[in-house]
Design goal:
The structure is a single chain. The chain is built from ten helices and no strands. With about 180 residues, it is mainly alpha-helical. It has two domains: about 55 residues, Arc Repressor Mutant, subunit A, CATH 1.10.10; about 110 residues, Tetracycline Repressor, domain 2 (Orthogonal Bundle). The longest helix has 28 residues. The protein is elongated. InterPro entries: Homeodomain-like_sf (IPR009057), HTH-type_TetR-like_transc_reg (IPR050109), HTH_TetR (IPR001647), Tet_transcr_reg_TetR-rel_C_sf (IPR036271), TetR_C (IPR011075).
């Protein structure tokens, strides 16, 4: 219970102050414990933050709705709904990633990589089924949705909205991935 509170407080302070503005002392005080209790579990601030980020990791299911558009919309749902705290933590850490690359990597591995992998699996499946053009720049196109979602998180400190996701899917992804013959 105390460890969960410590990790939760760490994430809150990270969102409020960024990595450089957050201190172990502030985490301990807000969690109602001492710094020694934190250092018994994590050797330093970066390890504490990485543990707090990893605690947000949730399994992501690869959708199979029966249509490419449906699968892309389901993949987009991860970016448009769900855990607001994860989006804000990701934004805070990506803002500091140039100074602390290990934190940016931890955030991406725990929060960003699972939905990106699900999207890649969807694109591979529909390529194998012949719906997506073999000549399509799949890696580039597959990175658009996560890139725009992360831009929203970092620049706007908010999740991608459903309307923008649908416009991106219908106006950019589907035309770029297919020959225009979708569902």
């Amino acid at each position: 219970m105390l460890e969960s509170a410590m990790l939760s407080v760490t994430r809150r302070l990270l969102i409020e102050h960024g990595y450089d503005g957050m201190t172990v002392e502030a985490v301990a005080k807000a969690a109602g414990t001492g710094k020694a209790a934190l250092y018994r579990r994590w050797p330093g601030k970066s390890e504490l933050v990485i543990a707090a980020v990893r605690a947000l990791q949730a399994p992501v299911v690869v959708p199979d709705t029966g249509s490419l558009r449906g699968d892309l919309l389901e993949c987009a749902r991860h970016y448009t709904s769900g855990h607001e705290e994860a989006a804000l933590v990701m934004g805070a850490l990506l803002s500091d990633a140039t100074r602390h690359p290990e934190l940016g990597k931890a955030a991406y591995d725990a929060i960003g990589a699972p939905p990106a992998a699900a999207l890649a699996a969807v694109i591979r499946r529909w390529t194998d089924r012949g719906v997506i053009k073999a000549s399509a720049p799949i890696e580039l196109i597959g990175g658009l949705l996560p890139a725009i979602a992360f831009r929203n998180v970092v620049m706007r400190r908010t999740r991608l909205d459903v309307g923008t996701a649908e416009t991106l899917i219908d106006g950019v992804l589907l035309p770029a991935l297919t020959a225009g013959q979708v569902d």
